[in-house]
Amino acid sequence: MIYDMVVIGAGPGGHAAALEAASLGASVAIVEKEAWGGTCVHWGCIPTKTLLACSGNVADIKKLKRMGISVGEPTVDLSAMKRHQHQMVRISELGVRKSLEDSGVRRIEGEGTLSSPGAVTVTHPDGDTMTITAQHTVIAWGSQPAALPFCGFSDRIISSREILSMETLPERLVIVGGGAIGVELATIAAELGSAVTIIELMDQLLPNEERDAAELLTGTLKKRGVEIYTSTSVESIEDKGDRVEVRGAKRDGSLIECAADYALICIGRKPVIRTVELEKLGIAYDRRGVLIDGHCMTNIGSVYAVGDVTGGVLLAHRAATQGRAVASHIFGNGSIPWCDDIIPAVVYTHPSLARVGLTEAQARTRGIRMEVIKGDYGGNIIARTEMMGKGFVKMIFHDDRLIGVTIVGEHAADLIASMSLAVANGMTKLQLQSWVIPHPTLSELLNSHIS
Ligand code: FAD
User: Fold this and answer.
1) Burial, 27: exposed, middle or buried (Cβ in 10 Å; 0-12, 13-18, 19+)?
2) Within its chain, how far is the Cα of 42 from the centroid?
3) Is the per-residue pLDDT at 336 higher than 90?
4) Is 439 among the catalytic positions?
5) Considering 42, 295, 439, 449, which one is annotated as catalytic?
């Protein structure tokens, strides 16, 4: 049988491409070598969000006292939390498998190798092989953690995958890299009682985000006891068998040294590039990933690539949007677009930070004339009744149209969803002002300060 589409990799990108194609009537096969649902389900979004929910509740219980509710000092049963994490991963994986089966997509377990643009050779776990042929192929190989140039991973120099697979938490943890994954894992570890140090090369945590939002989060992390070094480059890490020793140099020339149980490397992720296959087929790529056009098509017309393997913003919803866009381009009317400019990015911390579109600094660098409007959580009654603490919404308008929003504060990750729609549609100040939002809600933050 010749399928309409074969997908290699069942993370959010491949999964979404397969489901959307099947819903449009295409015959689809999907090949997965390790874990249905990919990084997101097994070592990314789902396990982190489960642990973050647990650690956040520990912090919230302490807040309850100020509301007049006494529940005693919280204790942490990490093994119960890990059971919850494993269960959430299992449920999500089952959901991926079932949705594929229900849609009539053929699921094939094994490692897929592109042998020609329309043929994938699958090596099953037992060593048997088979070849799938299809009109269209979607590469969705995903990404993997980047290592420091001067030292690889080891038993104690680990990536997010290993720390999420551990059944205990280190007493002392050094995190190299203060990006979204680094600060998320720092939040979880610190809230659950680890002594955490973050070392970041740039002069602020979350270098791509608004400086004032990153500073607010930095302050919260410090209050939780996290030690933070910015403008500091890690020069060496030694795995001593029972601990790690980390040395770094600050930009002012001074040196830092710290010892910990583990060094967690969070300096970014790199696309999985299977160079032999790409070169054999003449598929163009560079170090950032497989090169694609606006329809996720590679330079070989019948071969597409989606998700982290294409570089850019490495997020699950971007991968899934690309997957759906590919299917709609090939089998539908192409009505599902994808565009990196309107992909919301969230830093999952307590509180969270979410952005869609441009930051003030990015707009300034591009020479865009802008109006910046900011509203504080302190001016919102629900933020006050629920004792949400500090936070703000910052909106950037150009010629009266919304081009960027950053929210830092509780529920920022949810609040940004409507702002995505507003930025994607270039809504005007007047349209946002005319938006009727129920009272009293946190959502009122999204237009109460616009004048
Ligand atoms: P992946 O999810 O990496 O899936 C690729 C799949 O392809 C894998 O299952 C792999 O086994 C399979 N594969 C590869 N090669 C082959 C082959 N030759 N044959 C068969 N199968 C193959 N994103 C968010 O949006 N929100 C979050 O909260 C979030 N949290 C994260 C937390 C952490 C700690 C990490 C590491 C990532 C997080 N991400 C988050 C990022 C998100 O996980 C990725 O962007 C997303 O998983 C990318 O999807 P993908 O389909 O491109 O690749």
Assistant:
1) middle
2) 13
3) no
4) yes
5) 439
pLDDT in tens, 297-314: 999 999 999 999 999 999
| pLDDT of amino acid 451 | 85
| Residue 10 near residue 85, CB atoms below 8 Å | no
140 close to ligand 1 (CB < 6 Angstrom): yes
- Residue 38 CB less than 6 A away from ligand 1: yes
Cα of 321 vs centre of ligand 1, distance in Å, is 14
| pLDDT surpassing 90 at residue 71 | no
- In the block, which residue shows the tokens 């089966």? 101
Residue-by-residue DSSP string for 252-314: TS-EEEEEESEEEE-S-EEE---HHHHHHHT--EETTEE---TTSB-SSTTEEE-GGGG-SS-
Q: Which residue, by CA, sits nearest to atom 29 of ligand 1?
A: 45
- Band (pLDDT 50/70/90 cuts) for residue 118 is very high
Reported confidence tier of residue 15, pLDDT bands at 50, 70, 90: very high
Q: Which residue has the tokens 């938490």?
A: 169
Q: Whose CA is nearest to atom 22 of ligand 1?
A: 9
